[in-house]
Write a structure and sequence with these properties.
This protein is α+β, with helices and mostly antiparallel strands. The protein is built from four helices and nine strands, in the order βαβββββββαααβ. The radius of gyration is 16 Å and the shape is globular. Bound molecules: nickel (II) ion (NI).
Length: 190
Amino acid sequence: MKLPVYLYGHPVLRKVSEPLLATDDDIKKLIADMFDAMYESEGVGLAAPQIGRNIRLVVIDADPVSDTFAECAGRKFALINPEIEILEGEKISRPEGCLSLPGISENVPRVEHIRLRWLDEDFKPHEEEISGFLARIVQHECDHLEGKMFIDHISAIRKQLIKGKLNSIVSGRINVDYPVRFAPTAKRGR
Ligand code: NI
């Protein structure tokens, strides 16, 4: 069975996640299961808090959007304990969505160039400069490890305008076509 994606309103999405101290077969299995859950829900990135685990682990496969964003071609990787260094201050706004916020898409300002350091599933260190939409995906997913979501970057007015949608997610009054887990307070069961 596919891992369910935890939805907005669940407290696990608002906690700061802990670094991984080592990798093992369980972590490698978790990475494979996270890729499965991501593909099932047609996402291009998934962070461990979104499957209920507060550890610093992210999976990304950006290839499906490479027709629009060439820098995403063939970019599939798991990031353990990722660290972002901002290389350019100017922010550009583009629409983002999130598997934990089904049905919501908002323009989010982010920088276009970052330096990323991470460990792969064998705990081998990597460092790379990343740009464009791939840099956006990485920033979005790494936000999850800090307990942040993309709606934290939008204006108070925009947030007011989507309040009804947010309440529907929190209370479980939506239908989602991939396995999900609602907040413990939702009227609808898990
Ligand atoms: Ni997300």
